[in-house]
Amino acid sequence: MASGQINVRVAESLRVQGNLALEEAGWSPSRAIRAIWQFAAQHKGNPAELRRTLERLEGNPRKSPTERMRLIEEGRSIVDKGMTELGLSISPELANLSYNELREMAYGEMLKEMGNDQA
Asked: Is the N end or the C end of the chain the one with fewer CB atoms within 10 Å?
């Protein structure tokens, strides 16, 4: 089987720390890279799983749907608090509209301002 070569630039401190950790585990850098490439090849039909695994290895795991919803609610609370502190409010008829409904309203207003109102 023919082989190829991969050259990767990493910070020197990361290279040294990684090499030490791999050595302690009984692995060479080449073996670790081959294992990652093998995993990628085995998961070529499942990019989501590959991405999740690589992000976990990178120390940046994807948030679960529950965690993402918690962060959305947290963001909404921050906006609400900021608006209250500034004395701003959203009219009740707009407060419960979906993103798509608000977007359509904004597009309609832009068209009116441009003189392209078709209504």
From this structure: N
CA separation, residue 46 to residues 28, 53, 56, 118 (Å): 27, 11, 16, 45
Residue ranges making up the domain that contains 107: 65-114
Of 12, 59, 51, 15, the residue nearest 33 (C-alpha): 15
Asked if 84 and 108 sit in the same domain, the reply is yes
Q: How many residues does the chain have?
A: 119
Which amino acid is residue 21, in one-letter code? Answer: A
Same domain, 78 and 107: yes
Q: Say what the pLDDT of residue 42 is.
A: 94
The model's pLDDT over 24-66, given as tens digits with 9 standing for 90+, comes to 999 999 999 999 999 999 999 999 889 888 888 887 667 778 8
